Amino acid sequence: MRIVLLGAPGAGKGTQCKNIVTRYGLLHLSSGDILRQERAAGAELGKKAQSYMDSGALVPDEIIIEMMAKAIEQAPASGFVLDGFPRTLNQAVELDRALAKLKINAVLNLEIDDRLVAARMTGRRSCPQCGAIYHVDNLKPKTEGVCDNDGTELVQRADDNPEVVANRLETYHRQTEPLVDYYKNNGTVYDFDAGKDVDEVKASIFEELDALDKAFSADAVSN
Ligand code: AP5
Q1: Is the pLDDT score of 221 beyond 80?
Q2: Where are the chain's structural domains?
Q3: Is the CB of 51 under 6 A from ligand 1?
Q4: What beta strand segments (E) does the chain contain?
Q5: What DSSP assignment string belongs to 126-141?
Q6: What percent of the chain has pLDDT over 70?
C-alpha cells in the first residue's frame, strides 16, 4: 500500500504512522524526521533547511522533492507511508510524476481544531535516538523524561514554541490544506477526527486500512 498522511502540525501524523507501519509492514517516510536527521549530522541539506524549519516556513520544493524521491526509492514492495510530504500542490504533482503508474492508494486526512494544537505541541517530547513520540500529559513514558524503547533522554523540538507553532499552522492552512481537495479530485481521501484520543483515531484508521489491505490481498490472489 502507498499511503499519504495529511494534517496540521500536531494532528498526530507521526504518532499514527508508527502504528500503521507496524501493522501493515510499510516504510515510514517522514520528511520532517529526515530533515532533522540531516541537521543533526551537520549535512549540507540540513544546513539549507535550518532557517526555514526554525521559523515555521516550508523548505523550498526543489530541496524536498529530490530528498523524498530518493527516500521513496528505498521503499519495500509492501509500500510506504508518507508523513509530511507532499505539503504543496507542486510537491503533490511531482510525487505523482515520480510514482508514474504506481498510484497513491489512500490519503488519510487527520482533521484537528487549531485550538487543540498548542497544548499538544508544548507537551510533546521525542526520542532523538528512535523517534518515539510522547506527551507530558497524554502519552507519558514509563520513566519521566526517558524513552521506553532505548533509555535515551527525551528532547523537546526547537520549533514547538508557541510563536513558531502559530507560523506552522498558518503555513499549513495556506499551503498544505488545499491538497485535501487535490486528492479528493484525484483519489481516495479518508477523513478522521484527530481531536479524539490516540487509540480511537488509531481504531478508525485501522478499520479503513484493514478493508483496503484485504482488497489488495484478494487482488494479488486472483492475478
Ligand atoms: P514536521 O516534522 O513534518 O512537522 P509537522 O507537520 O508540523 O508535524 P508534527 O511532527 O509537528 O506533528 P504530527 O502531526 O506528526 O504530530 P505528533 O504525532 O508528533 O515538519 C517540521 C518542519 O520541516 C516544517 O515546519 C518544515 O519547515 C519542514 N518540512 C517538513 N516536510 C516538509 C515538506 N514536505 N515541504 C517543505 N518543508 C517541510 O503529535 C504531536 C503531539 O501530540 C505528541 O506529543 C503526541 O503524543 C500528541 N498526540 C498525538 N495524537 C494525539 C491524540 N489523538 N490525542 C492527544 N495527544 C495526541
Answers
A1: no
A2: 2-26+76-113+176-222
A3: no
A4: 2-7, 27-30, 80-83, 106-111, 124-126, 133-135, 189-193
A5: E-TTT--EEETTTB--
A6: 98
Q: Is 35 in the pocket of ligand 1 (CB under 6 A)?
A: yes
Active site residues: 13, 87, 124, 157, 168
CA distance 65 to 98: 10
Mutation pick for ligand 1 pocket among 38, 116, 138 (CB with most ligand atoms within 8 Å): 138
The larger pLDDT score, comparing residue 38 to residue 101, is at: 38
Instruction: Please tell me the residue having the least CA distance from ligand 1 atom 49.
Output: 12
| Contact assessment for residue 189 and residue 180, using Cβ atoms and an 8 Å cutoff | yes
Domain 2-26+76-113+176-222: which CATH number of 3.40.50.2300, 3.40.50.10540, 3.40.50.300, 3.20.20.150: 3.40.50.300
pLDDT (0 to 100) of residue 106: 95
Compute the distance from residue 213 Cα to the ligand 1 centre, in Å: 26
Which of 51, 117, 135 has the most ligand 1 atoms within 8 A of CB, as the residue to mutate?
135
Atom 8 in ligand 1: residue holding the nearest Cα: 9
Q: What is the pLDDT of residues 46-66, one digit of tens each?
A: 999 999 999 999 999 999 999
Would you say residue 223 has pLDDT above 60?
Answer: no
Distance in angstroms (rounded) separating the CA atoms of residues 117 and 192: 16
Distance from chain centroid for Cα 26: 13
